[in-house]
């Protein structure tokens, strides 16, 4: 099995990404509308969108709150171009950054809310906890974080995919960098990681098969 470098993987799939998501992710129509329901109708609310992709979640959020100011970070420039095409009337509300959200300085007490959708199921516990700490610091005092993602149905499932990812990387001689392989974590592990990062309240607010929305409050 070959592993494809992450930005290359998503840049090359930008054209058909939305069709893939809508056709292959169970409960996806409800997923994006449920995310949007969690966004307050505050004028010019500051939103951080990690791994924003083509902005499927933003399509629904703008229907509920058209004044949201979005900082979106993603490795795939081709995907973010889709956001500009779809929402060219909101370019003054969009700050789209091509980059790695693990390394990018997202600031302190900047955002009313942050979210990630179908992006963090590629990373280790340690990587996620470090990112969650950054997200926590970036939120205003009453801010919150939404994570909507594919999550492992059992610890055995999670362990298998982490071990398989390590095995393949070792076989290919890959020692660093982001490569596309799904390593989802269980809901229980996700909640524990968010709590370790400092979030006071973490709850599962929606679930359809293996797709889950978690709401973490600062």
Automatic annotation (TrEMBL):
InterPro entries (alphabetical): COMT-like, Methyltransf_25, SAM-dependent_MTases_sf
Catalytic activity: phosphoethanolamine + S-adenosyl-L-methionine = N-methylethanolamine phosphate + S-adenosyl-L-homocysteine + H(+)
Protein's UniProt keywords contain Plastid: no
Endpoints of the signal sequence: none
SUPFAM superfamilies in the cross-refs: S-adenosyl-L-methionine-dependent methyltransferases
Group of enzyme by EC: transferase
GO biological process, one term: methylation
Listed EC numbers: 2.1.1.-
Membrane-spanning intervals of the chain: none
Any one GO molecular function term: phosphoethanolamine N-methyltransferase activity
Highest taxon of source: Bacteria
UniProt keyword terms in alphabetical order: Methyltransferase, Transferase, Ubiquinone
Recorded metabolic or biological pathway in which this protein acts: Phospholipid metabolism; Lipid metabolism
Database matches in Pfam families: Methyltransf_25 (PF13649)
Methyltransferase domain residues: 48-143
Protein name in the entry: Methylase involved in ubiquinone/menaquinone biosynthesis
């Amino acid at each position: 099995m070959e592993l494809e470098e992450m930005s290359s993987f998503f840049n090359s799939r930008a054209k058909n990404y939305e069709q893939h998501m809508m056709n292959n992710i169970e409960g996806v129509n409800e997923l994006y509308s449920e995310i949007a329901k969690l966004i307050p109708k505050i004028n010019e609310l500051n939103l951080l969108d990690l791994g924003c992709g083509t902005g499927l979640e933003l399509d629904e959020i703008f229907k509920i709150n058209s004044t949201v100011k979005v900082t979106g970070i993603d490795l795939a420039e081709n995907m973010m171009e889709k956001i500009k095409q779809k929402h060219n009337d909101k370019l003054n509300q969009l700050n789209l950054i091509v980059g790695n959200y693990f390394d990018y300085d997202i600031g302190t007490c900047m955002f009313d809310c942050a979210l990630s959708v179908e992006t963090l199921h590629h990373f280790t516990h340690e990587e996620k906890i470090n990112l969650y700490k950054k997200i926590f610091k970036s939120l205003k005092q009453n801010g919150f974080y939404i994570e909507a993602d594919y999550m492992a149905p059992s610890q055995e499932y999670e362990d298998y995919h982490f071990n398989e990812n390590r095995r393949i990387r070792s076989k290919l001689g890959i020692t660093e960098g982001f490569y596309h392989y799904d390593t989802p974590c269980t809901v229980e592990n996700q909640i524990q990681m968010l709590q370790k990062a400092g979030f006071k309240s973490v709850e599962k607010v929606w679930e359809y098969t293996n797709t889950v929305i978690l709401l973490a409050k600062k």
